[in-house]
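Continuing the series of single-chain predictions for the mutant panel. This is the parent chain; the variants come on the following pages.
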Amino acid sequence: MIDGKRLRKLREDRGLSAENMARALSMHKTQLLRYENGDSDPSSDVVVKLALFFEVSSDYLLGLTDDSQPTTPRKSPFTVRIDVTDMLSRLSPEIVARTIKALNLPVVLKDDPINVSQLLREFPPVYVARFLKEMGIEPQFKYDGDDSDPSE
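Parent structure:
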């Protein structure tokens, strides 16, 4: 059985609501709370998802060790293509970034780096900055060739 108190502490330490975490993991909030309260046992697939999401070992989640770090580096069993813009429209920037990192998803860019200008047209600057910071991405801005002084 999963250690529900440990799971709740991991979630709360990261400032996640049960609703946001459940949404990020594609599960219902009620089910997540059942795991946290010890009312239900997650399947092995769910334990793997939780361990990847929080970057801890499954043994830690199961209460078999107090060492939260996995003993061997993990490779995600998933092959996923995601639309960051779509995810950012539904989830907080931190949750999007943590989900990508926790699932060990490689960030493969098309021809250009992440189009910060496009993200800025769709989301508030602070939102985009929080996402980039959480992902560890240093934005690289392209010069658009406009030499005009905006103060003129």
